Amino acid sequence: MARQTTKTFGNPAFTKTAIALQTLAILFQAATAGMLLSSSHGYLLHEVGSRVMYGASMLYVLAAVLAWRPGGGSPRPLLYATGFLVLASIQVVAGIAHVPSLHVPLGVLMFGLSLLDLGRVLAPRPWTPAPPVRP
Q1: pLDDT digits over 59-80, tens only?
Q2: Which of 114, 115, 118, 128 is deepest in the core (most CB within 10 A)?
Q3: pTM, entire model
Q4: Backbone angles phi, psi at 121, to 5 degrees
Q5: Three-class SS of the chain
């Protein structure tokens, strides 16, 4: 009897974890940005959170490379991860330069894109039944 198998590349748990960490770090950044408006503690938390968010973006790139290169998987997640790293770099520069007109909307965009990407990797794959075996 023939079995239908699906080939998986890399470690999907590592990629899912990296994207989830990135999404949580961006959400934390949004919360600490709000704290900046009302407290002096918000600045330190936002600064530390920015380093964590940038590190999470780099971790996502690493996870995407490990999922793509050794097994020959699709390079699309690597493009997503690289795009997030570019956006994170622009975000850091805009934050250091104190340009909130770019920094805030870019943060909202990054959170939305990260949520979409997280949903993409967490969504169950459609199940296709194996073809019937004819005797």
Answers
A1: 999 999 988 877 667 788 899 9
A2: 114
A3: 0.79
A4: -85, -25
A5: CCCCCCCCCCCHHHHHHHHHHHHHHHHHHHHHHHHHCCCCHHHHHHHHHHHHHHHHHHHHHHHHHHHHCCCCCCCHHHHHHHHHHHHHHHHHHHHHCCCHHHHHHHHHHHHHHHHHHHHHHHCCCCCCCCCCCCC
